[in-house]
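Q: Okay, next protein. This is Oxidoreductase from Streptomyces aquilus. I've checked the sequence twice, so it should be correct. Can you predict the 3D structure?
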Amino acid sequence: MKHRIVVLGAGYAGATAAGRIARRLRREDVRITLVNAEPDFVERVRMHQLATGQELKPRPLADVFKGTGVEVRIARVTSVDTDAKTVTVTAAGTEDRLEYEYDTLVYALGSGWTDQGVPGVTDHAHQIASRPGALRLRERLTELTAGAPVVVVGGGLTGLELATELAESRPDLDIALVARDGLGAWLSPKGRAHVRKVAEDLGITVHEHTTVTAVEADAVRTDAGELPAAVTIWTAGFAVHPLAAATSLKVTDTGRIIVDATMRSVSHPDVYAIGDAAYALGHNDKPLRMSCASGIPAAWHAADVIAARLTGTKVPHTVIGYTHQCISLGRNQGLIQMVTPDDTVKDRAWTGRGAARYKELICKGAYWSVAKPVMYPVRRRKVVGQRVGGRAFDATSA
């Protein structure tokens, strides 16, 4: 009977893992089901481009996984029962509930935006953590006339990329960026200087060391005063999907699934977590940051571990590390900040148009890793041991 592998989430981590597992195991031995809420693969690292009016190439999951043996199911995950080893979903466009049984679960539901408990954010701010959010912001921006004030809250990677992209594409708007710390505070001196120069050249007003206390329909309140805002965009932090915390999985206080060095849950050996949903340690036992740069290598590793354990071969040992942080600052400027394997910033940084082109290659490569999760011929190995067959059925009648 086939071993049932269910992968939740088709972002960079989930989609990569599903495809890589499929290329390592014989189709007659496994049934791989990939569950995702949207029918397309979303290039999340490009949401700032989508929000500012650029067109992105459609990436239908049906095309991505055609011929791989991965069964794509467009549905929203509503619950996970790690004791019964089942996942309940609601099929897209319907109220029909389906339940999938699994032998191995790969949890990759990722993260979304969080209001950090600040009053008014949910009601009045836009976000680009999802494609629907980016599209809503895009529509709102087209309604703005020259001189309209736009406030981007959050001085991290997402805030920097969005503010610079917006200022470049809409120089007629009055763009402000609010950062709790100094602008690019975590970067090297060269990196900070370049970010500051690009912001000045693009006419972005930066409010450093400023904390937002509330968001209103036409203003952002801070500890330093009020800022007018025809549009407020919130990029100040992300939170993981709450489903994991509702299970018996061992999670952190923020709901991330705690995994071992093989990306397997420390409490449930039949569950693997990758991407933003996982709390994993890298070099020097430092937690991996929530990013595409962590999610894709974690997906490769988890897929190889799962295949090895199912086929009785040697389990690979990998420590995920980093080489750089890539930041786009509009279409014409970029910053490649070099880091150590444990993500500690080095003094070296690459800036300018060349850095922007390199960042674009990184974005293309991220999708390439989804479409080509194994870049060389691989032998599909036989699953050892007997597995239980599975099916999807109406949960209301079960």
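A: Here is a summary of the prediction. The mean pLDDT is 93. Residues 183 and 208 are 6 Å apart (CA to CA).
Q: Noted. On to the next one.
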